[in-house]
Amino acid sequence: MKYGKWLLLAIFGFGLRIYLIEALTWDNNILEGRYNIFTDLDYKVYLDASLYDNPYKRHTYRYSPLLALVMSPSYTLHQNFGKYLLAIFDLLACFFFFKIFADRKEKANQTGGFIVCLILFLNPFLVYLSIRGSCEGITLLLASAFLYFYFGG
Fold first, then answer.
1. SS3 for 23?
2. Who contacts 129 (Cβ-Cβ below 8 Å, separation ≥6)?
3. N or C: which end of the chain has fewer CB within 10 A?
4. What is the pLDDT of residues 9-30, one digit of tens each?
5. Cβ-contact 21, 33 below 8 angstroms
């Protein structure tokens, strides 16, 4: 079963992101900790822009209008909805990277794919970017999907 290890990695990595998002938000809201949700300036810009009918009416907005639209449920559903969504993009990017290797017949390629996913998905820097609301997960997903389909996926 070539997806068993990847599935465990995916559950652990996604769970880690959700835990950190919630724990750090709780720390900020309840304990008034040093992690401040409003130091996530890009995330705050996405959220503020979603309140306008045209996101470019918000000064300093330089992203896609689709991003503001996708982040808008953060006001109605949950304050971290956008961060959860960005964590899902990380998960999908990891899946595409694993599929690039796992679809090959050699066993070494499947192991290599797992190692690449392990390095990417549990990289502390990328985890930190993801929980702070950075759009790097979207970029990584687009790049990995392109590579997957380019190599005949």
1. helix
2. 136, 137
3. N
4. 888 888 988 888 888 776 555 5
5. no
* Residues in CB range of 14: below 8 A, 6 or more apart: 87, 88, 90, 91
| Coil/strand/helix, residue 21 | helix
pLDDT in tens, 51-71: 888 888 887 788 888 888 888
> What does pTM read for this prediction?
0.82
Q: 147 exposed, middle or buried (CB, 10 Å; 0-12, 13-18, 19+)?
A: middle
C-alpha–C-alpha distance, residues 19 and 47, integer Å: 21
Q: With DSSP H G I counted as helix, E B as strand and the rest as coil, what are the percentages for the chain, rounded to 5?
A: 75, 0, 25
Q: What torsion, rounded to 10 degrees, do the Cα atoms 23, 27, 29, 31 define?
A: 150
Q: How many residues in the chain?
A: 153
The position carrying tokens 């899902």 is 88
